[in-house]
Predict the structure.
Amino acid sequence: MIDPESMLDGTRDVAIDGGRVSAVSEEHVDGKAVIDVSGLVVAPGFIDLHSHAQTLAGRRLQAFDGVTTALELEAGRAPIHEAYAWDAAMGSPINYGFSTSWAAVRRRVATGVVGDGGIDSCLSVLGETAWRGPLTAEERARLVGHLSDDLAQGAVGIGVLLGYAPDVSPEEYLAVAGLAASAGVPTFTHCRDLVELSTRSKVGGAEELVRAAATTGAHMHVCHVNSTWPREIDRVLDLFERCRAEGGRVTTEAYPYGASATAIGAPFLSPEALAHRELAPSSITYLPSGERVADEARLRQLRAQDPNGLVVVNFLDEDDPAKMAELRRSLNFADAIVASDALPLVVVADHFDPLAWPLARGAVTHPRSAGCFSRALRLWREEGAPLAEAVRRCTLLPARVLEGSCPAMRTRGRVQPGSSADVVVFDAERITDQATYADSTRPSSGVRYLLVDGEPVIRDGELVAGARPGRPITAST
């Protein structure tokens, strides 16, 4: 077993009583039920800070990827009390939680549209334009007020989709970071471009985040650093490293794929922005039809007709060893966290049952939605990296991002007496991703057991179909 906090890496018996680990022992421990996992690894359940796959099907796929807690912290949700009510009514096989959504709240202030707290409502901002314009001083104050209300009602941070609103003033971002600092919660930012990638950028995205960390003292978490600046990754990581050396609270995350995913109406997917990234319309696959976008005319047509249509964007050739080395630098950066950026399923068949398991053909997504963590473990295994360090980046490090403001995370990311019984049991030599871009909903293999709050969600490699032990993770629990 591996406990990344105590650095324990050895053979033990683990006892679970209710929803807690009651003992970790070198001696045999008796129990009412005994599971023999000889030859396997017992570890804390993986914690995903960045998952948009907040549906039953999405969470089941993540369970087979070793995830016991999947949080929506980049886009967030708003109003936050409705978000938690929505998911509590649905029930979940794994734990869930949300930041408050700067973008959804900003849409409310700018346009008067109040979302319902559901996932579709919050992700619909990605391709919309009406909410992105400048705010007056009074509107900015209302924005901060609504965000503050959500934090008071349990949101675990502030999700900031700044890269989707390039015209927002740097002063607004500083105000949001200042609120996070005063509330003692992190921000989770989809950063702007670097200045040279967009003539619309008012400030370079990496520099802006570092400035906010230094000016306000807020904990600034950088979402998907690998896909925001893939061609300038060494420069950006060096900046973050220098900021941290000087006392700034900056953490990073990455996923092990050379393609991103978003709404086709995102500003950074305009034909002009693609050119700055050395990409073309054919770099984009439009998921509802499965088509590679043929040319600029077709891209403009799809952006106008279906701005929230989900796409996969190939920004890095995964078959090129040099390009993959760049990607791995994001993953191997000091204390970088694994986070999936899991995408919701896009239904492409007339008849598809999202409640059935195994999932039938008829839905597509990005393969990271099913295979992010197991793929990261496989890549590190191929590099000969220590398994305990790989586990730490999937468990303890994400827990520590939140544990200062979120009591529930202080007992997760560990396996030790008193910790939450969120546990994954996997075959270290065989755990791997199976989802591909062509077959994106294939569950990962190698996870033999997954316990959430002590209740099996996966037993002997099979889903426990009725299991819904997932608990809400809030700033007050």
In short: Residues 137-152 form the longest helix (16 residues). The chain has a mean pLDDT of 95. The two ends are 27 Å apart (CA to CA). The chain has one domain: 2-258+316-473.
